Amino acid sequence: MLKDIEISQSAKMKPIEEIGAMVGLKKDDLEFYGKYKAKISQEAYRRLKEKEDGKLVVVTAINPTPAGEGKTTVSIGLAQGFYKIGEKAVLALREPSLGPVFGIKGGAAGGGYSQVVPMEDINLHFTGDMHAITSANNLLCALVDSHIHNGNELNINPKTIVIKRCLDINDRALRNIIIGLGKPVDGVVRQDGFIITVASEIMAIMCLAEDLEDLKRRFGEILVGYTFSKEPVYAKDLKAQGAMTALMKDALNPNLVQTLENTPALIHGGPFANIAHGCNSVKATKLALKLGDYAVTEAGFGSDLGLEKFLDIKCRYANLKPNCVVLVATIRALKYNGGVLKQDLAKENKEAVLNGICNLKKHIENVKRQCTNLVVALNMFETDTEEEIEVVRRCCEEEGVLFVCADVYKKGGEGAVELAKTVRAVCENEVDFRYLYEDELSLKEKIKKIATLVYGADDVVYADKVSDKILEFEKMGFKNLPVCIAKTQYSLSTDPKKLGRPTGFVVNVSDVSLSAGAGFLVVLTGNIMTMPGLSKTPAANFVDVVDGKIEGLF
Questions:
Q1: How far apart are CA 208 and CA 367, in angstroms?
Q2: Helix 241-248 with 212-220: angle, nearest 10 deg
Q3: pLDDT per residue over 510-537, tens digit each?
Q4: Beta bridge partners of 116
Q5: Is the pTM of this model over 0.90?
Q6: CA spacing 20 to 30 A to 488: which of 151, 303, 425, 537?
């Protein structure tokens, strides 16, 4: 079989205006970025607001192996499958970050015959949204330091600045730095650091903002630090929100591309689910609901991370309600959770699947707690055996949930026909959807609910002074905010080595920060980093350009 990049490079793409026309978009609705990608204008978004919504399908997963399990591939395959059964579907996906593209994971545009294209563009600079986010974030940081250097009229205490610079590349050397060294004209010396762009509050704000005015308002509410008298200082106090919005004006508009089978796809925003809220933009999801009979979107990593945040943050702010949740599982992820090493996952091991099936059961429980309409999709690999698949099928029968095999990597939309039919039928059922916690609960009560109900922890333990910070945020008026917990994706617990369905553990909270503009409290657990590092042999080592063609993204 051809490599993913070879498949994508041989794709027969249609001009992007033809893809737009498939869902009722006019040429004037599109802002072209070459022949095969475009942004959808704000005017089109406003015009379509009154149109009736389609059905919302959100794709999540069990805990993955470090190699990833193809949740995006299944999302793409499902959208293509809808077209195979005569239904109009629109994808709404996240944009890949250069961090994993050049780090441990490689590209993130699907795989095999379920990909979005042009793959190289999507994985690399695309339409420049990531650069705009990085620039807006770093402009705010520069304005803070310039203000302090030029007299500090707001009386900002440099030791209390909480906003960090960002970069969309894994670079551990930038996690903790000293800035302002050199001559007096080079600024005030202070400790600083970088986070990865996809973990920045600017990214979260772009993905939650309804329009430019909402974007600007949220930018103004970003907490940048405190005065010497311990009063909060916000971006609006520095008059930063206008210039930041100018940098983000075009980036706020969703990007239109297509799949290998010419299914329309909106790719917009890309916050990580392990260190951010893990969902594509509200604008893209709402636009997909207007343009298609079915909007297929994904929530990063598993139900413990991306889906919980999708339901409790994104749906809460955007007034969304999923008609169906698709829970992706793989035989190899179950074997990994059953104790098999990554290098041995291709070997048949029914016993390991049985040992790891507890992980799937916990994710089914998590989904059912918040949304009753659920389908389990087994993403097929060539090494899967009938005996291993039967273990998963029996588990789903015992749990009372629908089970479908999806062979989307090899067969594209054809491999998702049964899945599309099943999801279509489920979407006709009434859905019982609920948030995990109420706004009125304290921030600590919200954290504990997620930790105990979703992760299965016994309790939550806070590092020194973290409880004081939470109390201070509540006193500042932020008690009603939802919480965004950053933790490892490889385990239901905060320890990546605790596989399956861990019990008898606590969640250790190392720090918290306030994203007042985005509208949530960020909770750091375990050893989670907001600026990842590169491995000894990163994916970047295999990327090259040969005879004008990019190689090695997959």
A1: 22
A2: 140
A3: 999 999 999 999 999 998 889 999 989 9
A4: 259
A5: yes
A6: 537
